[in-house]
Write a structure and sequence with these properties.
The complex is a heterodimer of chains A (113) and B (113). Chain A has 113 residues and is an all-beta fold. Chain A is 0% helix and 49% strand. Chain A starts with a strand and ends with a strand. In chain B, strands 2, 4, 5, 9, 10 and 11 form a six-stranded mixed beta sheet that branches. A five-stranded antiparallel beta sheet of chain B has the order 1-3-8-7-6, with no helix packed on it. In chain B, a hairpin with a 6-residue loop joins β4 and β5. Classes of the chains: A mainly beta (113), B mainly beta (113).
Chain lengths: 113, 113
Amino acid sequence: GAGVSQTPSNKVTEKGKYVELRCDPISGHTALYWYRQSLGQGPEFLIYFQGTGAADDSGLPNDRFFAVRPEGSVSTLKIQRTERGDSAVYLCASSPWVTDTQYFGPGTRLTVL
Amino acid sequence: GENVEQHPSTLSVQEGDSAVIKCTYSDSASNYFPWYKQELGKRPQLIIDIRSNVGEKKDQRIAVTLNKTAKHFSLHITETQPEDSAVYFCAASFSGGYNKLIFGAGTRLAVHP
């Protein structure tokens, strides 16, 4: 079946702009995660959804970052007033249930100029 | 705080040799330890995982061992092949009842023909 998909694959924006990154999890997966991966580093946890609710947003760096999952499927990560330090690959993962294997999407490479 | 240390950062082996990557974690409540392989520009892909009630798990040429007392776990790849060349990440889940993964910084494995 189809894996986790993310759009866009690449996003270039200017400092101060607003961006939205989309994640389509594997159908039926209830758990959804967002991670951020900087060059040469491992993925860094941002937020976890169980169904529609954000069960843990402790990894969001500050209040410029926000994520939603209104219908318990697709999720959108929103970044306001982007800064150059936000440049990274944003990865989404989903799992059938919270204790199951996480399957990653291909990521969105965000570049803030 | 939550931390996973991974060593070595780079590893170069000859085809057919074995490769070992080691990780230590800080949270004694961690109960799930996956290993991901990431090729350049691609998504992380799970290669093997282990839960805290098991000391060792093997899948063909790949094995993982877990020492809960010492809080470390290792990946072993035998009979390495050039296609094993990639970056490998270990991760540990942290307490809270869900798989919030904390990743190591990665090991770049190069297998030379």
